[in-house]
Specification:
- Two copies of one chain form a homodimer.
- Chain A is of the alpha+beta class.
- Helix content of chain A is about 35%, strand content about 20%.
- Chain A has 14 helices and 24 strands.
- In chain A, the strands form two sheets. In chain A, strands 1, 2, 4, 5, 6, 7, 8, 9, 10, 11, 12, 13 and 14 form a 13-stranded mixed sheet that branches. In chain A, strands 3, 15, 16, 17, 18, 19, 20, 22, 23 and 24 form a ten-stranded antiparallel sheet that branches.
- In chain A, a hairpin with a 4-residue loop joins strand 5 and strand 6.
- The longest helix of chain A has 24 residues.
- In chain A, about 60% of the residues are buried.
- Chains A and B meet through helix 11, strand 15, strand 16 and strand 21 of A and helix 11, strand 15, strand 16 and strand 21 of B.
- Strand 15 of chain A pairs antiparallel with strand 21 of chain B.
Chain lengths: ~650, ~650
């Protein structure tokens, strides 16, 4: 692969590669989602989730803490964590992307945009006032620790917060052109650059990666090479026992030597996103190889069917290979987001379709489950099973949706990904346009010095038909439209202007090379027949089970659809067909999948010991009866009454 | 059942029922383990574990903290927990029981006894010096909190520590007759009685139960009824939201209304032990019924095959019904001990054999795994699986044995149970003697005003033969020798004086009623053929798996016995026979069980996604080869090199 021309690079969005970046692909030069599934979800994000941010940050104390640090309010610090500020920054990032989205010109749009701009500017002013003269900014340490700094790199989250400040500032600058927050962020980055590094006061790094990938973005936005160098320094110091040597803090083994992902899932993935950023900007082969190796290891051994990662509640850890529990799947929503961010960087770096396969799976399942259908409550953990008789612990790790968390990292993280989602849909490589995700909208790339663009129309994932229309094409040269054929797809057809098309399948990419003319129509049809899926036999947790999937969606059973009993005794009959049914009335409009099943005969409950000799006389009670199973998309679970849920269904 | 005569009650041991106790059974009037399996384990406890206690408590800071509280040393408080003192008390309890064991009259015994007495007396003096004038004693609060008291009932552990102090004092008094520690404990108990209770300064209880069962023992030892009343008050206040309402602190639901065990496993079980104590002393039917109901629910839905309980690392929680993970089984050693303590109280209360079935299973498996074969290192958690590629977190929750823990609750808890184990072997009911566990030794009970006694000889569980000889019998009346037939046993024979005996099986008890004469010989033979065991189908974690058991022992595979590969791809062939082999050279002498198996064909590792459509072409690699499986007793695992381990074996 060769570096692509930066000439027509996109003007906004995350991962805006630097001019010398050495990647296979670059972000689309323009991208807009205008209808369909994701548009509806983004409308909820724009109209419900994001506008409520300021009042939630006020009531949780985050804005109060900024005022305390600025000396403009009195009282005690509120909140339990040194990273309270990061919630504010993530919301600012989400709101900034959103401001860039809201179409001006309509009365509704103008008024919503103005409200949001007012909130963002007000909160940016709070942040600026809280910053110390030398650029340092962390309300927890300023208010509760008498200004102590960088004494607890393992847990202090000072650079983590700086990273989210930088990300917010870059987003604000890219989306609005505003420089106020960028000035604050740059001052903090400059301060960090005076303190950390070889021969400087501190040789170390933050226990929670984030500043690394943020500094690369700041380099991209400002052109200042020293931010890239500082990011490289931080990435390289991990894994050498510098801050204690724990896997939790990504300090046990250097990335370039690691054989599998480990430790705190979000920390690992943010670090890997930074490594991919560095490999993109510098072309370092070893760092790229580490990313490829670790991504393969993660997906092959440590990823749940939903794309969720992180098997342990304890230390939010990845867990061991093939240790993928259902009821105790941690699958933090933030880890799903981090996985998408890393995978997108790897997709651009390598050009390989599999990274966007995982992005699709994660977006539609383990990520989207994190927000309720109304956009007003959240899941921090995303289990694949809730048992009959579950005693919910409440709190952040509840299996019930919660209005806000004590550790509120996930909600504004969801907001910022949804608000910038169009930038994960398409890319360009100088020779054409790649469509990574299927969504109704418009996407452009570049071929040499010319713009190429398509519009897309689809009700995906409700149906598998995607119609693309060429909107812009130079007309004087061939270029390639590449469509990702998802890993889950076993059958597809493609037609150009109504006729079966000659297209080659290239490692997940369907390549259509033509001298395209505006108005040409490409019809892709992916077979959406519901299917049963099984796991590698080493995934002990789901031995003897199958899952229902349809298109990119993982399905689950919920107790609400199976009155008169729980779900722990349900068995699916895999010899009977699955049936899909559109249910516009249900859960905001879903396609359900029906299957034949039964309630199993259970051992007599009167016996006190649940283990018996093989071949002993069966003490089972009377067999249970047949049961029609109704599965709903996993992303929509926990939007009705409390009850049990399961993704993996025993077959006998 | 009717209350039994207290006339000839045992003079030592835990659970020394009060004179008015209303139980089906009472502890044996005398009990001694003199040979065989448990004798060997107790010798290690007596000669390695217990004697090292004082130096470990010194190096961990516990004794230093006592000196700080007494004002006889200077420096910082050492250790991270408010319950540092309880480690000292549990060791004192263990050492006290041990002093009562060591046979005087031999040079070795006299010298070991003198050493231990010297250590115990020295440490009791430290404890007495640290006590405050009004009886209060907790070094954490005295040293680090400026004497603040009872402000944090959820986490303070002040009454928890008081409970272990009382248990130690009762043990010391029963085993040695010494009153020094009893005076300290009584003063603390009297202080607590002035502070806690209806109309007193504090209406509440300690977040970690322990003082409740200890106060019942103090009542038994002193005859002071108000200790029993205080215990009843504490037990009754649980579950009413008094200290926050969490299941973790046993404050979510009152015991008398609870349907299943919940929350922190050790806290739940110590509380239930106290409830059984109260029901024993008061005869309260409702509390007894709650114990029976919760014990049934725990064993039927929340107990691992090893007897281990507590499914979650997070909050050390019981987890949901049938949520019994293997690799993340918490199964804290202390929870196994607490389960034994509760079950023994229920066995005495009800006379039912099943409680001692669980005790046997727990002792031989999930408890004994907590201590290394040499008695010098420990496991805090007792998982049922360690995966290939496991990244050990180190620390207290390591799957590798550790010399001592930061939270060192388990090691001295193991010591005290092993040192008092003979008191869990036999009981009496006024009409005969019940043998609950099979161990070489001597056990006596009472029939009316007469003593009845047997000696037992057995190599159990290496072999299934137990020979009992009547040693004492009045000769003028019939009495019943009851032998527990374990729940795992599918076939047994019994002979009296060489002839097949007429005995009825009564709900787990083999009843032999005779006018016994000294010298009569009862031969019980339990079939020790190795067997395969499966779980209730709702235990998702082990679907499609079997476990190997032999007698009361659960077996596991360890990587050390299967060179050339891991264990995650191993399959057992259940159609081929199991073979037992005595291996005196291995792991201190064990019986191994061999089985036929193979390494399974695995999906191609090059593929990145471990989930595939059912019926898709199999992408498996070449089939693995046959593999002879060698299983070792679970209690002996983790005594060789690090490596994977598993109890449950896939069958296909």
């Amino acid at each position: 692969m060769s570096p692509t021309s930066p000439a027509l690079s996109a003007a906004t969005g995350p991962v805006l590669l630097g001019p010398g970046a050495l990647t296979a692909l670059r972000p689309a030069t323009s991208a807009a989602i205008e209808g369909g599934f994701w548009h509806a979800r983004r409308e909820v994000n724009a109209r419900a989730s994001i506008p409520q941010g300021p009042s939630l940050l006020e009531s949780a104390g985050n804005l109060h803490d900024l005022r305390l640090a600025a000396g403009t309010a009195e009282g005690d610090f509120r909140g339990d964590y040194p990273f309270m500020d990061s919630d504010v920054y993530k919301w600012l990032e989400a709101a900034s992307w959103q401001i860039g989205q809201i179409g001006p010109g309509t009365e509704d749009g103008d008024s919503r945009r103005a409200d949001l701009v007012r909130d963002v500017d007000r909160i940016i002013a709070l942040v600026a006032e809280a910053q110390q003269p030398d650029g340092y900014l962390n309300t927890w340490f300023q208010v509760t620790k008498g200004g102590e700094r960088y004494k607890d790199l393992r847990w202090g989250h000072e650079l983590y917060c700086a990273g989210h400040l930088i990300q917010a500032a870059v987003a604000h600058h890219r989306a609005t052109g505003g420089k106020d927050l960028l000035r604050v962020a740059t001052r903090f980055a400059d301060h960090i650059d005076t303190v950390f590094g070889p021969g400087k006061a501190i040789d170390g790094f933050d226990g929670h990666p984030e500043v690394e990938t943020a500094l690369v973005e700041l380099y991209r936005e400002t052109g200042e090479r020293r931010y890239l160098d500082l990011a490289a320094y931080f990435v390289d110091r991990h894994g050498h026992g510098v801050i204690g040597g724990e896997a939790y803090c990504q300090d046990r083994v250097p990335l370039r030597e690691a054989e599998n992902v480990e430790g705190h899932a979000v920390r690992q993935l943010y670090l890997l996103a930074a490594a991919a950023d560095l490999a993109s900007e510098t072309g370092e082969a070893e760092l790229r190889a580490a990313g490829e190796r670790l991504w393969q290891a993660m997906t092959a051994t440590k990823t749940h069917l939903t794309g969720g990662v992180g098997a342990h509640h304890d230390k939010e850890d990845f867990g061991d290979p093939f240790e993928l529990p259902n009821e105790r799947a941690y699958c933090e929503t933030c880890a799903a987001i981090a996985s998408v961010q890393w995978s997108w960087r790897m997709a651009l770096l390598t050009g390989e379709a599999r990274y966007s396969d995982l992005i699709e799976r994660t977006l539609f399942n383990g990520f989207l489950s994190g927000v309720s259908l109304d956009g007003e409550s959240w899941l921090y953990v995303n289990p694949l099973q809730v048992r009959d008789g579950h005693t919910d612990p409440g709190g952040d790790h509840s299996a019930r949706r919660t209005r806000w968390f004590r550790c509120a990292c996930c909600p504004p993280n969801i907001m910022r990904l949804l608000a910038s989602l169009e930038h994960y849909v398409a890319s360009t490589d100088g020779a054409g346009l790649q469509i990574h995700q299927y969504a109704t909208g418009r996407f452009s790339g570049e071929v040499g010095d010319a713009v190429v663009g398509v519009s897309a129309h689809t009700s995906y994932p409700a149906a598998g038909a995607v119609v693309l229309t060429v909107e812009e094409s130079p007309g004087d040269r061939p270029w390639t439209l590449s469509l990702r054929i998802p890993e889950w797809s076993s059958r597809h057809t493609v037609r150009v202007d109504g006729e079966a098309a000659d297209a080659r399948l290239d490692n997940g990419w369907l390549r259509l090379e033509r001298e395209w003319a505006p108005g040409q129509r490409i019809e892709l049809e992916l077979d959406m027949t519901p299917r049963l899926t099984r796991a590698d036999p080493r995934v002990d947790a789901v031995r003897g089970c199958v899952a229902i999937e349809r298109g990119p969606l993982v399905y689950c059973l919920e107790q609400a659809d199976h009155p008169g009993g729980g779900l722990d005794d349900v068995v699916i009959d895999v010899t009977r067909p699955l049936t899909a049914e559109e249910r516009p009335d249900l859960l905001g409009g879903v396609t359900t999948v029906s299957a034949a099943g039964r309630r199993r005969a259970l051992p007599q409950t009167a016996h006190w010991w649940p283990y018996q000799g093989v071949g002993h006389g069966d003490t089972a009670s009377a067999p249970g009866g047949d049961l029609a199973l109704t599965a709903v998309p996993y992303y929509a679970w926990a939007n009705r009454e409390d009850g049990s849920m399961r993704v993996w269904l025993p077959t006998s």
